[in-house]
Amino acid sequence: MAPDRPSIRQAAELALPGFAIGAVGGAMAGGLTLIAGQPVGWAAVSALTLALPLGLLGGLFSTLCGLGGPFRPGLFAPAGLFWLLAFPLSRLTQEVSTGLILDGQVVLAGGVAGFLAYQALVSLGFAIGFVWLHERLMPHWLIRLAGRNPVARTLLQRYIEHAEALDHQRRNRKARGKGQTKGVR
Q1: What CA–CA distances, in Å, run from 134 to 32, 90, 146, 161?
Q2: Which residue from 11, 56, 137, 149 has the least number of CB within 10 angstroms?
Q3: Distance between CA atoms of 13 and 63, rounded to whole angstroms?
Q4: CA 34 – CA 130 distance, rounded (Å)
Q5: What is the pTM assigned to this prediction?
Q6: What is the distance between the alpha carbons of residues 138 and 162, in angstroms, rounded to a whole number?
Q7: What is the largest CA-CA distance in the chain?
Q8: Could you tell me which of 29, 61, 65, 43 has the C-alpha nearest to residue 130?
Q9: Is residue 102 classed as helix, strand or coil in its secondary structure?
Q10: What is the model's pLDDT at position 3?
Q11: How far is residue 132's CA from residue 112's CA, in Å, rounded to a whole number?
């Protein structure tokens, strides 16, 4: 059983996969900015100002997974709702920071409400990619932590139980399929 309150170190260790996924996703924005024809400095600032909030919020997501809250292996809806708020907030942070750093002003296409509404729509795609990567990276990270971090050990057990349940469902479907096709020829 995980302790009631993880230590700062335990929480920080859990945060690493989500932080890395968010930061890399944000940094990719710099590459897209370059492809769009913006100068290197603009791309670097754009990458940094998105990588930082996405990384921090991704780390928060990973940590919350370990605390046994609504984020569980194989469950997308809570993650989708998290990123429905977190992604637009990250993009708003990026746009405001980048505008102030490079131009000394902030211009949001469609105003704040329009900008946030559009980013909320885009957030679903980010959420799907984030969760897909998180579900693949987190268990490997937890295996490394499980010996010294009881919170990681508990979360790893949840991932194992989820994998076993999926395997059990797959075997049942396969067995039912074989039973149905035996008499048919």
Answers
A1: 22, 18, 17, 17
A2: 137
A3: 8
A4: 23
A5: 0.87
A6: 13
A7: 75
A8: 61
A9: helix
A10: 47
A11: 30
Nearest to 130 by CA among 18, 5, 9: 18
The label of the residue with tokens 């409400």 reads 113
Indicate if the alpha-carbon torsion angle 103, 109, 111, 117 is positive or negative.
negative
Q: What share of the chain is helix, strand, coil (3-state, %, to 5)?
A: 80, 0, 20
Q: How far is CA 118 from CA 30, 35, 110, 128, in A?
A: 20, 21, 9, 17
DSSP 127-160: HHHHHHHHHHHHHHHHHHHTTT-HHHHHHHHHHH
What does the block give as tokens for 29? 């924005």
pLDDT tens digits, residue range 2-53? Answer: 446 789 999 999 999 999 999 999 999 888 989 999 899 999 999 999 999 9
What pLDDT score was predicted for residue 184?
Answer: 56
Other CB atoms closer than 10 Å to residue 34's CB: what's the count?
A: 16
